[in-house]
Amino acid sequence: MKEVYTIIVTFNGQKWIRKCLESLNQSNYITKIIVVDNNSSDQTLSIIADFNNIILLKQEQNLGFGKANNIGIQKAIELGAEYIFLLNQDTFIYNDTIENLITEAEKNPDFGIISPLHLSSDEKKLDSNFATYLSREIEEKNEIKIVDFVNAAAWLLSKQCIEKVGFFEEWFSHYGEDRNYCNRVLFHSFKIGITEKSKIVHDRVVLRDFNKDKIQSKYGILATFLNVNKSLNSAIYLAFKQVFGLSKHFMTYYSFSKIIVLFFHLTFYYFNLIFRIGKIRRKRIKYTLC
């Protein structure tokens, strides 16, 4: 059996974490579990303490998704992981989820990321955001749907992919780091895929939130600046178009006054990145050398 480490980043996840960990312990395929806790203040840590097979890495502050996962990934590699399974705290898996992912990964080593299907909490419908990513299928290979992006709620990453692509970009505090990582995976000629043979449940309700949309939009623009699949000049131009495109997109959901706030917020952020273009250029070069 391949050595698989599951990494879960927790932050005030008492609502979900017990079911998540229990589902991993019931997996047909043995996985070692690393939890990186971002300084939870609820009962998350006491629930984790009920499990005696968890490697717990407690942090003194909330590092965000990418930085915390990097800590877990580094630890897993030091311990001999051949595959890393990133899993959100608000998910749970089925008995054959990991087994089916590993089977597909072993048959298709050119895939750097393989994701299971993400079901909504009713375990019937697809998670609404995930359905969007699945609908953007480019082609199919060996029954794996090839996509340019899938969110990182449940990623199986090969060690070879991590060695080539590197870790999550820590410029992203929360949101956008998975988009950036997918862009880098594609640059290094790995594929990104979704297999219908494996499933998880993502127990969440997707709701509109203006502050969340502002943050996601901002980091979407940063991901465009850092996209090494485009020339820097093209990335700068595409990011400029994004400022207008994102503002127009959210007109469906928010009042005119909020759209104006969003537009000026994104415009300010865009020009802030322009002033940091030297650092962005160096970061892009680093991605190509990983």
Q: What distinguishing features does this structure have?
A:
single chain; 290 residues; Spore Coat Polysaccharide Biosynthesis Protein SpsA, Chain A; 2 domains; 11 helices; 10 strands; globular
Low-confidence stretches: none
How many strands, which pairing sense, and closed or not: the largest β-sheet?
A: 10 strands, mixed
CATH architectural label of the largest domain = Alpha-Beta Complex
**Contiguous helical run count:** 11
Number of strands: 10
> Could you tell me the radius of gyration in angstroms?
19 Å
State the shape. globular
Chain-averaged pLDDT: 97
Helix content: 40-55%
User: Termini, distance in Å?
Assistant: 28 Å
Strand content: 15-25%
> How many structurally independent domains?
2
Short description:
It contains eleven helices and ten strands. The chain is α/β, with parallel strands linked by helices and 290 residues long.
Word description of this protein:
By secondary structure, this protein is of the alpha/beta class. It folds into 2 domains: 4-202, Spore Coat Polysaccharide Biosynthesis Protein SpsA, Chain A, CATH 3.90.550; 210-289, no CATH class. The protein is built from 11 helices and 10 strands. It has helices at 17-25, 44-48, 64-78, 97-107, 128-135, 159-165, 177-187, 210-225, 232-249, 256-275, 277-289, and strands at residues 4-10, 32-37, 54-58, 83-87, 91-93, 111-119, 139-141, 144-147, 154-158, 191-202. Strands 1, 2, 3, 4, 5, 6, 7, 8, 9 and 10 form a 10-stranded mixed sheet that branches. α1 (17-25) links the parallel β1 and β2 (32-37). α7 packs parallel to α8 (210-225), α8 (210-225) runs antiparallel to α9 (232-249) and α8 runs parallel beside α10 (256-275). The longest helix has 20 residues, at 256-275. It is globular, with a radius of gyration of 19 Å. The relative contact order is 0.12. The model has no long low-confidence stretch (mean pLDDT 97).
